[in-house]
Fold these 2 entries.
Entry 1:
Amino acid sequence: MSSDSHSSFIEATVDDDQPPSSPSELDSLPSSPTTSSLDADTDDAEETDAEREWKESLQQLELLLTMVVVPYLGKYFGRKCAYWGWAKFMQWKYPVEIVVTSEKSFKGAGAIEAAASL
């Protein structure tokens, strides 16, 4: 019996002492590749196509993460950290309590101030 792992067929073991019982057994063996071996080849080709598409989709996902998601998350969390750190520093340096009495006027003043720099 052949131990070649790359072959897609199994060889039958034949005892050297005994010849085949009838010639019809040899005639029944296929001389050309069968449809099952052809199907196995196409399955391998389909698997490689699927693997290639999977690798391409992983590459696209990696590009999306590195080019879009990570920079925006870094910008968001970096600003959050900077504002938090600045607030802590200012509270330490100038211990003043700020109380907002009117949320509407506070937001309006912020909008006017932001528009003034344009």
Entry 2:
Amino acid sequence: MGRKAEREAQKIVQKAREYRSKRVKDARSEAQKEIEHYRKEKEEEFQKFEKEHTSGNKKAEEDASKDAEEQVKAIRSAGDKHGQKVVDDLLRVVTDVRPEVPDRVAVPGKA
């Protein structure tokens, strides 16, 4: 009679161990699912955040590029319109030398 009770007790303990082991595995599996869900949720939030903030930068870059291009066109237009006059004026000033004594230098015989 004692052996039978001992075997019954061992069976109960074994079932309890198996049940506990199964619960631990289930808990791990559930925790892993929750972690994956949380990771996916945060990744989606990050993608949304990045998309919102990157698109603003792209628009700013496009606007800046457009403004720069307009300014370059204006400079080229001014260069085309007045370029030859500027070159002529520079050549005239460089080739038509008129030496003059500055006012702060004393000229002998002029005082």
